[in-house]
Design a protein that fits this description.
Blueprint: H1 2-31, H2 34-86, H3 96-102, H4 111-133, H5 137-153, H6 162-180, H7 197-207, H8 216-247, H9 255-267, H10 270-273
Helix pairs in contact: 2-4, 2-5, 2-6, 2-8, 4-5, 4-8, 6-7
Length: 282
């Protein structure tokens, strides 16, 4: 009997405390200066916006990293299939760097297998584009996880570790691009350095982008990758500009903010939009 009485008393006490808090809050709002209430509400809304913007910024970074790794993995698949079908000798095993980054996607395979992997990756890219534009954060997370699982199903080893794996491969790709950039076809002093072995392997993969395939099917597949990449980059660009438009008022005026503004303005710089034509390359 005493146990039930104690429970009932606790429930009544909890309810009374809730009512008391509501009454105190009501009195405080009545006596508080309207201007002070507006300031408090503005600060509360700003905190919510900052939290939401931080989540969306992380989402855009994830989509960007996944996109970069996807394109490189698909290129590895198509290259392996092309070499497998054109070589009369026993194909060589892929390097440990490409294997750890792209796994089965970079293994020697048939054209049919490569095309199937690229097709799965294409579906994952669609999921990423939908994630970029998703308003609901839970929906966006589900779409990104769906894309990650699709990339993993396509054999991309980096996808097993999600954003951590994508960031590691993205860093290798960036270093390879820096090493590979421009029209310099000669090997630099660091190309064959053991310390740069991983960069050289990634560099070799990226170099395939310069050469037009002799097979029409390969040509079509690679151009499809280019189109999908361009579409995803465009989606990310629009989302990024919209994101900054909504977020910049919450960022205090400082050199960092000026740097962000300058970087965003440079996205549509003429040099970034022009088509670079060189008869030596595709």
């Amino acid at each position: 009997m005493s146990i039930f009485t104690s429970k009932q008393s606790t429930e009544t006490s909890t309810e009374s405390l809730h009512e008391w808090r509501q009454r105190v809050s009501s009195i405080q709002r009545e006596r508080q200066d309207p201007a002070a209430i507006a300031v408090a509400e503005a600060k509360s809304q700003a905190k919510l916006r900052i939290k939401k913007n931080a989540t969306k910024a992380k989402r855009l970074q994830t989509v960007q990293a996944f996109t970069k790794c996807s394109n490189a993995g698909n290129m590895a698949s198509l290259r392996s299939a092309s070499r497998s079908s054109s070589s009369s000798q026993q194909p060589q095993m892929i390097s440990s760097t490409l294997n750890s980054a792209f796994g089965a996607a970079a293994q020697i395979q048939s054209r049919e297998e490569a095309n199937e992997r690229v097709e799965i990756s294409s579906k994952a890219m669609t999921s990423l584009q939908q994630a970029v534009n998703a308003e609901d954060e839970e929906e966006a997370d589900l779409l990104i996880e769906e894309a990650r699982a699709q990339f993993q199903n396509a054999g991309h080893a980096w996808a097993e570790n999600g954003i951590e794996g994508a960031n590691e491969v993205s860093e290798l790709l960036e270093e390879g691009i820096d090493m590979f950039g421009g029209d310099n076809d000669s090997d630099d002093d660091n190309y064959n350095d053991n310390d740069n072995h991983q960069k050289s392997e990634i560099n070799d993969l990226l170099s395939d982008l310069k050469l037009e395939p002799t097979n029409d099917e390969d040509c079509s597949r690679r151009f499809q990758l280019y189109e999908e990449h361009t579409e995803t980059v465009s989606t990310i660009r629009n989302s990024l500009l919209s994101f900054w438009l909504n977020a910049k008022d919450d960022v205090p005026n400082c050199s960092a903010k000026d740097s962000i503004e300058a970087s965003l303005a440079n996205i549509d710089h003429a040099e970034n939009l022009e088509v670079y034509l060189n008869p030596k390359y595709w």
